[in-house]
Amino acid sequence: MVNAFNCNIFDKGFGLTHSSLNHSRRQLFTRRNLSDKPSLPWIKESLFSDLCTQCGQCVKACPTKIIQPSDGGFPRVDFQQGECTFCYQCAEVCPEPLFNPKTQPAWQAKAHIEDSCLAKKNIDCRSCGDSCEPFAIQFKLAVGSVAQPHIQLPDCTGCGACVSVCPTSAITIKHT
C-alpha cells in the first residue's frame, strides 16, 4: 500500500515534514485543531462557513496583516504575524452580514502559556509580559527559580501581542 509518507514529495522543497503533518484522519476532517482558536474578531461563528465568500476584503483591510487565508480560502487570524488592535476594519469592509456590532466583545479568547515556556524551564524570559499592553501577564517571584508568568484572565483581551514575541511559541490564544 502506498501512502503519502512513502512518497518523496515531502523532501522536494514543499516545506512539509513528518512532524508538521497531522497523522490523525479524524482531526483532519473535523478541524479540531482550529476549533479552539479564534477565526476573526466579532465574527458570527455559526454563519461564518455558510456566508463567507472568501473575497479577501478583510485580509486586505487588516492594518497589522494578521488576517490570512487558511482552509479553503477562509480568513483566519494568525497571531504569529502580530497582534489584533481591534480596529474593526475587517468587519467594516465585509460585504456579508458576518460580524457582530463593535459594541459586543470581540471574542471570548484568552492567552494560554504552555509547558515549553522558557520561564517554566528556569530560563529568565519576560518577552510576553513586556509586550502585553493591558498587563494581563504578570510574573510571580519564586524561590530558587526565575519568576513564573501568570495570566490574569479577566485582563487578557486575546489580542495576541504575546504570541509572536515568544521565542519558543509557548503562547496560544484559545477560546475560553
From TrEMBL:
Keywords: 4Fe-4S, Cytoplasm, Iron, Iron-sulfur, Metal-binding, Repeat. InterPro entries: 4Fe4S_Fe-S-bd (IPR017896), 4Fe4S_Fe_S_CS (IPR017900), Fe-S_Ferredoxin (IPR050572), NapF (IPR004496). It comes from Vibrio casei. It is found in: Cytoplasm. [4Fe-4S] cluster 1 binds at residues 52, 55, 58, 62. NCBIfam families: napF. Its cofactor is [4Fe-4S] cluster. PANTHER family: ADENYLYLSULFATE REDUCTASE, BETA SUBUNIT, FERREDOXIN III. This is Ferredoxin-type protein NapF. GO terms for molecular function: 4 iron, 4 sulfur cluster binding; metal ion binding. The gene is napF. The keyword Nucleus does not apply. [4Fe-4S] cluster 2 binds at residues 84, 87, 90, 94. [4Fe-4S] cluster 3 binds at residues 156, 159, 162, 166. Could be involved in the maturation of NapA, the catalytic subunit of the periplasmic nitrate reductase, before its export into the periplasm. Belongs to the NapF family.
